[in-house]
Specification:
Pfam families: Usp (PF00582). Belongs to the universal stress protein A family. By secondary structure, this protein is an alpha/beta fold. It has two domains: 145 residues, HUPs (Rossmann fold, 3-Layer(aba) Sandwich); 130 residues, 3-Layer(aba) Sandwich (Rossmann fold). The chain is 40% helix and 20% strand. A ten-stranded mixed sheet has the order 3-2-1-4-5-10-9-6-7-8, with helices on both faces. Helix 5 runs antiparallel to helix 10 and helix 6 packs across helix 7. The radius of gyration is 20 Å and the shape is elongated.
Length: 276
């Protein structure tokens, strides 16, 4: 891991993300790209209204000043920090910055949302999860350490999740132990024990070339996949949840939703997502 992006809004949650990124950066000798997006319209930068130029310069100067204050942290000492300011708040731009700088990971803080706000507004973090082509690590609390000793990889173990599983295993520390989780829910997606075991066996043969991890697979039943993942994580005392995501957008996202985004909003544990 060479480069980590941390989008910030100067809140305590983005500071949690920055501190988590600092821990990872020191572990991997990585650079941190600190990204702030100003809520400014393109019209301010078009040059058509010269009277707007002082306003633009003021906001850019203010962002620079806030950056300097925000980045004045002891835990950042010895880490290469690159501040980046984007003038508009378009969350797909985070992915564009990641691609431009060949970043390996996005770390974000989130307080989560629920109810009406969750459906019609959504959190900034879940928008990044939806658009990102690289893994996103979501932090909810101030990190004491990031020694992810017990890690859960939750999946339906379909063939298109193989690449996410391989990337997830490469992100783990040597001390980490991964537990695989299959959540069986009522309805048309319900599977028998034999069907689940066969699907996981086929998955591991394709992903690992063997079935050595078969003894790490856990099968649980619950009313929803999200509840199954959270309940099992709490029971196991997990340190991190890893999950593939389709990154659905538009009507598909509205009607089908996203399990990964639900976890980002509701799980207290750190969640790392991988785009399928």
């Amino acid at each position: 891991m060479d480069k980590i992006i941390v989008p910030i809004d100067f809140s305590k949650y983005s500071e949690y993300a920055l501190e988590a990124a600092a821990i990872l950066a020191k572990q991997n000798n990585a650079e941190i790209l600190v990204l702030h997006m100003l809520e400014m319209s393109d019209g301010l930068f078009s040059g058509s209204d010269k009277g707007q130029k002082p306003k633009v310069l003021f906001f850019l100067k203010l962002a620079q000043q806030k950056f300097e204050e925000f980045l004045n942290k002891e835990y950042l000492e010895g880490i290469k920090i690159t501040p980046i300011v984007k003038h508009s708040k378009v969350f797909s731009e985070v992915s564009e910055v990641a691609k431009e700088h060949n970043a390996d990971l996005i770390v974000m803080g989130s307080h989560g949302v629920s109810g009406f706000t969750e459906v019609f507004v959504g959190s900034n973090t879940e928008k990044v999860v939806r658009h990102s082509e690289i893994p996103v690590l979501v932090i909810k609390q101030k990190p004491n350490n990031l020694n992810f000793e017990t890690v859960i990889f939750a999946s339906n173990f379909s063939e298109n999740a193989v690449s996410s599983y391989i990337r997830a295993t490469k992100m783990l520390q040597d001390s980490s132990k991964m537990q695989l989780l299959y959540v069986n829910v009522p309805g048309e997606n319900f599977k028998s024990t034999a069907e689940m075991e066969q699907e996981v066996a086929n998955f591991l043969k394709k992903a690992d070339g063997n079935m050595n991890q078969l003894n790490t697979v856990n099968y649980v039943s619950d009313y929803t996949i999200e509840k199954g993942i959270i309940n099992f994580s709490n029971l196991l005392g997990a340190d991190l949840i890893m999950i593939p995501t389709h990154g659905r957008k538009g009507l598909a996202h509205f009607f089908e939703g996203s399990i990964s985004e639900d976890l980002v909003n509701h799980a207290n544990l750190p969640v790392m997502t991988f785009k399928i």
